[in-house]
Design goal:
Mean pLDDT: 95
Order of helices and strands: HHHHHHH
Distance between the termini: 37 Å
Helix content: over 70%
Oligomer: single chain
Number of strands: 0
Largest sheet: none
Structural class: mainly alpha
Radius of gyration: 15 Å
Number of helices: 7
């Protein structure tokens, strides 16, 4: 699978988890059973990792969301942001600009225009915080 396909499948699972009390394993098993999109161990790993860090990532989203309280952010946007921020923060193989670009592509595909702008704005703000951290370290 291409990285964009892995990311999109992980987004689907992350979105589903927002509505479900099922375990990560149960959601993965159901995804294989339904066969609605391609699954593999890379999707499983990314989804599980995003889910594990969701509390930390949600705090980041809430802190960067100036105009919307976290509870008022559409779940599609939350799922997209979770995957993108996870990649920006924890996956050294994914450049920050790629994580943002791919998240915007997902938002354009599955969200409304204002939500695309919101996702882009939150991720842009987060990228700036990462740049500031790097500058202060150097």
């Amino acid at each position: 699978m291409k990285r964009s396909e892995i990311r999109e499948a992980a987004f689907f699972l992350t979105f589903e988890k927002l509505f479900s009390e099922d375990s990560v394993d149960d959601i993965i098993d159901a995804a294989y059973e339904t066969d609605e999109f391609e699954m593999d161990e890379n999707v499983e790993r990314l989804f599980a990792a995003v889910n594990e860090k969701s509390g930390e990532i949600d705090e980041i989203i809430a802190g960067l969301s100036e105009k919307r309280q976290f509870g008022r952010i559409p779940k599609v946007s939350i799922a997209i942001l979770r995957v993108a921020i996870y990649e920006m923060l924890y996956d050294e193989k994914v450049p920050v600009n790629v994580a943002i670009s791919e998240a915007v592509i997902l938002a354009k595909k599955f969200s409304y225009d204002p939500d695309v702008q919101f996702v882009n704005g939150v991720l842009g703000a987060y990228a700036r915080t990462l740049e500031n951290k790097e500058e202060s370290v150097n």
